[in-house]
Amino acid sequence: MLRTLDIVLIVVMTAAATVTYTIKHKAENKLEEVRSLDAQIKLEEDTIDLLRADWALLTQPNRLDRLVKAYDKDLQLVPTDPTQLAHPEELPMLKADVPPPEEKDSKGKKKTVPAVASSDGQKTDKISTGSVAR
Q1: Which of 80, 127, 120, 85 is nearest to 102 (CA)?
Q2: Would you report the helix, strand and coil content of the chain in percent, each value rounded to 5?
Q3: 20 to 30 Å CA-CA from 68: which of 21, 87, 111, 131?
């Protein structure tokens, strides 16, 4: 006859086999997912390589020169003059970087002009240019 210990060992062995099968099944699913992701990554890398090759082909100077000559009448392109190029230090300042205007008081010391609220609620300074006729 079967002893109690034999029955307990059979149940433990069955549970261990079930857990082992479950873990193996999950591992195989994850491996399949990893292989699928590897295939997608390879496809994306191949696409990037193809697009880079296409870009290199499209931006060849000889090809662009032929296109400029072929469509010269339609596009009316002219070479850029060296004087048309601006350096970053030549660009105007951003509004936020502009220092506040200064005035001299009666003693000759510089003081900043306080901002005045205009009728539309925006703050403006007291500087007038004289270029606008009122």
Answers
A1: 127
A2: 60, 5, 35
A3: 87
